[in-house]
Amino acid sequence: MGDLLLGAVALVLVFEGLMPFVSPRTWRAMFERAMAMTDGQIRFVGLASIALGLVLLAIWR
């Protein structure tokens, strides 16, 4: 179980690092747009990400 969690965290870090590495200008613009969002919009994006992740986990398992 611990190895699976460590692998998942490592994969998240790889995906999180791809955008700033490949296209820092686009990443910066995307971050600026995110800063202009309301708390409710950010929460919705977070909820949608959680839901998508749970669906993907259910399919994978």
Layout of secondary structure:
Blueprint lengths: L1 H21 L1 H12 L3 H22 L1
Helix pairs in contact: 1-2
Features:
61 residues; mainly alpha; 3 helices; 0% strand; flat
Q: What radius of gyration results from the CA coordinates? A: 14 Å
Biggest sheet details: none
Poorly predicted runs are none
Please, how many domains? Answer: 1
Helix content: over 70%
Tell me the strand percentage band.
under 5%
Protein described:
This protein has one domain. 0% of the residues are buried. It is mainly α. The protein contains 3 helices and no strands. It starts with a helix and ends with a helix. The chain is flat and about 40 Å long.
Nutshell version of this structure?
The protein has 61 residues and is mostly helical.
